Amino acid sequence: MMASYNYDEFSTSDYDFDRIDGVALGGKAKDFTLETTDGESRRLLDFSGEFLVLEMGSRTCPLFQSRRNIMQPLEREFSNLSFAVLYVREAHPGSNIPGHKSFEDKATCARQLKEADGETRTVFIDTFEGLAHQAYGSMPNAVFIINKNGCVVFRSDWNNPSSTRKALRELVEGRPITARSFFRPAVPTVAIRTMKNAGKGSAADFFKGLPFLVWTNVFKRNWRLLFKKPAQYSGETLC
Fold first, then answer.
1. How far is residue 120 from each of residues 4, 65, 113, 190, 209, measured CA to CA in Å?
2. 190: which of 62, 104, 141, 183 is 20 to 30 A away, CA to CA?
């Protein structure tokens, strides 16, 4: 499991884009005791806010890096909520930021996300084997909103910050969620910078899989979502 999870080169075969795995919408969120970049050992679901907004990410994920300048301000806008990042495997490893060979590799990358990239949210470091990431579906930039009952009231395999913000606004106003999270591509300048920082090999692997990614997510996924009725969970959802 370790060798296949922490891949050295990105391939579209590393993900199943047509299946939704991990904790289900409306289901019980999985809890894990994980180390943070501050050196603390904390439970993932031991949050103080009214809801937990949990985003998957890594330094080499262009989508995650594109979302950060929108997601981080949400933490200030919704100050009564808790926001966190689960640091997972490198989405597009390269010569500068290769796939993790140990937990310390992952911890170093997570700390660099805080120190070099300026991430302001709490960053949990997943286990080397990616146990938490796999429990939450294994996608590189998924997002989950979890209520105080420990129930997943909103999830998207690809974070669209505008939809996430709409879902949060509906929740804090006591309304059921109607937001639908359509796939939105990475910001081109951020994507280029992210893969340049990752190093040689990152961009080549990304562009090799790009046509498949565009077809699967921009067209197929968004088309299906267009006709899918929102589940409309709320802050009072029990699971």
1. 31, 13, 9, 18, 31
2. 104
CA distance 40 to 201: 34
Tell me: the pLDDT tens digits for 50-102? 999 999 999 999 999 999 999 999 999 999 999 999 999 999 999 999 999 99
- How far is Cα 213 from Cα 64, in angstroms, rounded to an integer? 15
DSSP-derived pairing of the beta strands 152-156 and 82-87: unpaired
Contacts of 171 (CB under 8 A, 6+ apart): 50, 51, 145, 147, 153, 154, 177, 234, 235
d(CA 94, CA 166): 35
Q: Please, are residues 100 and 91 in contact by the beta-carbon 8 Å criterion?
A: no
Query: Is the model's pTM score more than 0.90?
Result: yes
Cβ-count burial 88-118 (b if 16+ within 10 Å, e if not)? bbbbbbbeebbbbeeeebbbebbbebbeeee
- CA–CA separation, 49 vs 29, rounded Å? 16
